[in-house]
């Protein structure tokens, strides 16, 4: 089977789920194309027998930018093509993005055969949210890694079509829209402190091109999607939000932990 996994990942959690899915599919003899929103066109998605769409949950839905990309860039289904959706989030409450993505997939002619919500460690600590303790992170990652394997096995078996309802999706997508507007303004609260070494990593990695290194400072514009990649990816931990320094979240380091 030809499988296209198209996703957005701000800080690596969704990328981790996509890579795990890809490894499972490949080990079962299927061919996989991985494509991120930032890469642009999902070149082989039009040829896919199974399309997977995945993203992180922001305020209950996947980011509005990802929804827009799916609507614009994901080609219509070839005859018989199926789709499965996945999201990653810090909890299961209010994580409805897969329902929104399912409706988009159906509109494009796909038969939906799977919807998966993978709980991953939290990457967002603004407000009252605290970083998770290492033991909890380990437990979550172990459980979710197993669930991703089960999801891949299910999709390679004989998954049944799901009944998809568009009820409530407009309100859900309006929430994503509202979140994206709030993010633009909230993003103005980022700043780089004196530890900045002007390496331009944040500028290069920002998914919306919102960060510019100027002569005198790092400028944060008005197209932030609040993914927090700049904070967590900064090599000198120099990026603050509202003048406050938040602990960095590094999934690539966590996955090197012993998960046994
Ligand atoms: C702006 C923002 C909003 C978030 N909102 C939620 C939420 O409503 N519910 C939740 O469970 N997790 C929420 N999270 C946590 C992320 O969904 C979670 O950490 C996700 O796995 C991050 O994926 P990524 O690393 O691929 O970007 C939020 C994260 C961000 C950055």
Given the C-alpha coordinates, what overall shape results? Answer: globular
The third-level CATH topology of the largest domain is: Rossmann fold
- The chain-level structural class is alpha/beta
Order of helices and strands: EHEEHEHEHHEHEEHEH
Structural notes for this entry:
- The chain is α/β, with parallel strands linked by helices.
- It folds into two domains: 170 residues, Flavodoxin domain (Rossmann fold, 3-Layer(aba) Sandwich), CATH 3.40.50; 66 residues, Alpha-Beta Plaits.
- Helices cover 35% and strands 18% of the residues.
- It contains eight helices and nine strands.
- Helix 1 packs parallel to helix 4.
- The model has no long low-confidence stretch (mean pLDDT 95).
- The site of flavin mononucleotide has 24 residues, from helix 1 and strand 4.
- Flavin mononucleotide binds next to helix 1 and strand 4.
Topology summary:
Blueprint (H helix, E strand, L loop, with lengths): L1 E6 L5 H15 L3 E6 L13 E7 L7 H10 L8 E8 L7 H11 L3 E9 L14 H23 L12 H18 L3 E3 L8 H5 L5 E3 L4 E3 L8 H5 L5 E3 L9 H4 L6
Parallel strand pairs: 1-2, 1-3, 3-4, 4-5
Antiparallel strand pairs: 6-9, 7-8
Bound molecules: flavin mononucleotide (FMN).
The site of flavin mononucleotide (FMN) has 24 residues, from α1 and β4.
């Amino acid at each position: 089977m030809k499988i296209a996994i198209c996703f957005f990942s701000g800080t690596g959690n969704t990328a981790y789920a996509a890579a795990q899915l890809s490894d499972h599919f490949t080990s079962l003899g299927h061919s996989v194309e991985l494509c991120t929103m930032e890469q642009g066109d999902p070149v082989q998605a039009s040829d896919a027998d199974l399309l997977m769409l995945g993203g992180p949950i922001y305020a209950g839905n996947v980011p509005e930018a990802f929804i827009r990309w799916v609507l614009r860039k994901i080609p219509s289904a070839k005859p018989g093509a199926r789709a499965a959706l996945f999201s990653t989030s810090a909890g299961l409450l209010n994580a409805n993005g897969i329902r929104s993505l399912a409706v988009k997939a159906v509109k494009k002619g796909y038969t939906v055969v799977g919807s998966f919500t993978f709980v991953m460690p939290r990457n967002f600590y603004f407000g009252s949210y605290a970083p998770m303790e290492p033991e909890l992170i380990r437990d979550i990652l172990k459980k979710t890694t197993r669930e991703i394997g089960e999801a891949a096995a299910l999709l390679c078996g004989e998954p049944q079509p799901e009944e998809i309802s568009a009820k409530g999706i407009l309100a859900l997508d309006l929430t994503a829209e509202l979140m994206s507007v709030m993010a633009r303004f909230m993003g103005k609260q980022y700043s780089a402190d004196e530890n900045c070494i002007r390496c331009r990593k944040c500028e290069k990695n920002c998914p919306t091109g919102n960060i510019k290194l100027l002569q005198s400072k790092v400028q944060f514009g008005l197209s932030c999607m609040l993914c927090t990649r700049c904070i967590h990816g900064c090599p000198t931990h120099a990026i603050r939000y509202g003048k406050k320094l938040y602990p960095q979240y590094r999934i690539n380091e966590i996955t090197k932990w012993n998960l046994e």
